[in-house]
Amino acid sequence: MSSNVEKIGAVMVVGGGITGIQASLDLAEQGYMVYLIENSPAIGGAMAQLDKTFPTLDCAM
Amino acid sequence: MESGRYSNIKIIANAKIESLKGQAGNYNVTVLKRPRYVDEDLCTACGTCVSYCPVEMPDSYNEKLVNSKCLYIPYPQAVPASYVIDPKYCLFQTKNECRQCEQACKDLKAIKLNQQAEHIDIQVGSIILAIGFDEFDARRKKAYGYGEYPNVITSIELERMLSASGPFTGKITRLSDRKHPKKIAFLQCVGSRDIETNAYCSSVCCTYAVKEAMVAKEHDPDVDITIFYMDIRTQGKGFESFYERAKTKFGIKFVRSRLASLERIHESENLLFKFVTEDGKHHSEEFDMAVLSVGLEPSRTAKELADTLGVKLNKEGFCQTNEFSPTSTNREGIFVAGAFQSPKDIPESVIQASGSVALASGFLSEVRGTLVEQKECVAETDLTGEDPRIGVFVCHCGVNIAGVADVKKIREYVETLPDVVYAEQSMYACSKDNQDKIKQIIKEHNLNRVVVAACTPRTHEPLFQETIREAGLNRCLFEMANIRDHCSWVHANEPQAATEKAIDLLRMGVAKARLLSPLKEETVPVIPKGLVIGGGLSGMIAALSLADQGLECVLLEKSKLLGGNLRGIYYTLSGNDPQKLLRDTIDKVTSHPKIKVFTEADIKEVTGYIGNFLTRFSIGQEEQTISHGVIIVATGAFEYEPKEYLYGENESVITQHSLEEKLALKNFNSDDLKDVVMIQCVGSRTKEKPYCSKICCSQAIKNALKIKSIKPNSNVYILYKDIRTYGFREEYYRKARNEGIIFIRYDDNTLPLVKEENGELRVEVFDPILGENILISPSLLVLSAGVDPGDNRSISKLLKVPLNFEGFFLEAHVKLRPVDFPTDGVFVAGLAHSPKPIDETIAQAQAAAARAAIPLTRGYVMVEPVASIVDSEKCFGCGICEYLCPYGSIKVISDEDGDKAQSISASCKGCGICASKCPRQAITMGRFTNEQIIAQIDAFSLATSDV
């Protein structure tokens, strides 16, 4: 990368499952503008379909 | 849910990337936003339109087990909380007719049937790919009859069946006759570890099958469950004891077998399993239901996305990464995290998410904060001398509350309570537009207290507090009554009781609200420097990652040299050079201007709290003190020192680590490698050390393959319980079998027997395939010694952070906060957390650095207004509070007035343990004062007849 690129303080996160949501939250907390792009009509991903999670049987919501 | 609240996160749903231009640091991305046919900003998710929509379609969220309308909301907690129309089913989109929904929404005009796709250009410095996975399509395994036999379902379908909010309200249901099955079989590795479909292991199916089986047993203790499997791979932290619990406490049967066939019995629609067990015997057994544990495949959008971005995929179709940089793609500034990188569970995904953030943030650190607008802070209204004027909002939560409780009656009752000047019903109290409405009503009616009766404050209180704050009210002038979980959910079949209880809760909430007073919101400055404890791989990566994000840090190592366990690793399964990684990392750490390294450092004392820690340590005779804002614990672990199998008595009995060293340094003679026996799970999965050490299976296979490459005619035997080469490591297990490495399984009842006879080693082990004992005289006996946490008690005490019962550090939340401690400002990474391989260690170290960077870059922490307040007149310094506080947030300080407790408000979580146990009642909690709580109790004791 040439050093004269004007860097942009924004990050695009592609995918709104638990991974993308966590990444977005951490970036936002650090002071970046975040664009979270999700293919389906709502974020949440596979985890939103889960009832409980191992190994503590906590509710996934 | 939380992500919807951040002003600097813009969620663009129903969208994909169309093109990428520009270069790292300054990418131009065009995003295609497909039409939703509903205006997200106008839609309140009231759901009125749905009853007008005449078209049904299969509900994907519920795995198509039931139908939904083609005008739908994906699931109740969806963000954006807005309906959407599926154009494939909508009558207007397909036949240009109907338009009933438009009529239903004629006031709000949120339905936009002519909405067009949008192309949005966005400039970003970096991109993180987290597109996840798709489940394996079980139809591809024709022999299992999925899609044809009604009672063969997938594990994801079972997940939805088990959910109380699912299609059968939590009842497991046979699709053939809607009856409840009494005998269920799980079939593992469907679309995993299978050369016809996916050769790799999907890593998560064993543990999720165990989980689903346990939940099914909780629903119905009489249900009989058998899990058919090849190896049980419960290698994650805490998973092995979970598996043990399933076997011993829940009585779930595990049968190691090969499935010969799965047949449908037409009359009963039961399923006949014909299978072969290890001993070669054939069995058949009938079940009411079969659950296919489907594997994880690359997302179906992966190929197109990778092509658009110029990102390489591996041969399995997941994102290609390197073992030593697990979240970097081949393109600069583009990172990857989660199941798109390889199949993985939630904690590993969350770790990689934060890990990728560390890289993105490192790449863009000089422009951090440049695009984020500071929210304008509305001045707080001064309420001195004002009488309470309470506004109450009672939420319908769609039908979640209103479907059971009589919301109108509740609202009418609330209007009669003292100081309530306004009450109204809201369809969704939490919706975006309702927040604006609440603000407007606060102004119109001069409200100075707000009570919301809705769902749980755990998820929603911060949202409403933010709203009233924006209207100029102090956050603490808010109270919530949970009439969903505590009323409509638990009393779903008793609407009358649910309504009465909601009325009680509201009366109590209002009684408390009358006594609320504003509490000060303070911030505490953060010293922008990190302390990393431990100079192994995880500590070094964490320090580098902080430094790359522009932050100073100090790295303390107990021993003379940096590197830790990595010093003894000479090659990896996939052929990378760990010694080069070691040299490069040490070079970077020691030459980085922002990192200060101290070796032979011994920590004496740590005091302070997030933002303001003070650490005293000694180097030889000299003592030093440093102040810093955060701490990362990366103290590592050790190889278990075996007490079994003649280790330490016969010099031909060695551990995998010493074997690796011998092989790498060519410190052996050819005869040593003639007949090598390896025993797995030495110091793992035993009574004394019940956890799985995760890395030893791969380590054994790595060393076995190395021996074969050095001396192809050597005999290598691996005695194992389960081979746990999860993810893409499976390829090397297959390779090992193909190269003639002999795998012999043992279990707790058939432990191998090791003897020395005339100076020669003898190993006797029962071979379950042959059905008899075999005798080997090995030239080398290699013990796959597990990972031993060592003694972490002193660090645990110094930092007041917990250990689990195995001796590893215990994180704040197993799933969602895998690198945080309950104590703010303290983080964990690497083997100190749990056994893990190099790639996971690196990701976790980066994750800890990303999390630690949050307070450091912000420069301050907000103090929770609900913090303990000590009345020093009453306090007599007994120290019970300090002893009990789980967060290290209250301390007894000695001064001229004697011993007095002092609250550390920066890290206090407001849990109230101290206040409840103080023998002098010297501690009060803001917003939960004795007066407020007593007022609530008094309000409750008003007889219902008074209502």
Q: Can you offer a commentary on this structure?
A:
- The complex is a heterodimer of chains A (61) and B (947).
- With 61 residues, chain A is α+β, with helices and mostly antiparallel strands.
- Chain A contains one helix and four strands.
- A two-stranded parallel sheet of chain A has the order 1-2. Chain A has a two-stranded antiparallel sheet with strand order 3-4.
- In chain A, strand 1, helix 1 and strand 2 form a beta-alpha-beta unit.
- The longest helix of chain A has 13 residues, at 18-30.
- Chain A is elongated.
- The model of chain A has no long low-confidence stretch (mean pLDDT 84).
- Chain B has 947 residues and is α/β, with parallel strands linked by helices.
- Chain B is built from 23 helices and 47 strands.
- A seven-stranded mixed sheet of chain B has the order 11-17-12-13-14-15-16.
- Chain B starts with 8 loop residues before the first strand and ends in a 6-residue tail after the last helix.
- Classes of the chains: A alpha+beta (61), B alpha/beta (947).
- The interface between A and B is large, with 57 and 98 residues.
Taking strands numbered 1, 2, ... along the chain, how are they ordered across the largest sheet of chain B?
11-17-12-13-14-15-16
Per the principal axes of the C-alpha atoms, what is the gross shape of chain B?
globular
Number of helices of chain B: 23
What characterizes the major β-sheet of chain B? 7 strands, mixed
- Order of strands, main sheet of chain A, comes to 1-2
Could you give a short description of this structure?
The complex is a heterodimer of chains A (61) and B (947). With 61 residues, chain A is an alpha+beta fold.
What structural keywords apply?
heterodimer; A: 61 residues; two-stranded parallel sheet; 4 strands; elongated; B: 947 residues; alpha/beta; seven-stranded mixed β-sheet; 23 helices; 47 strands
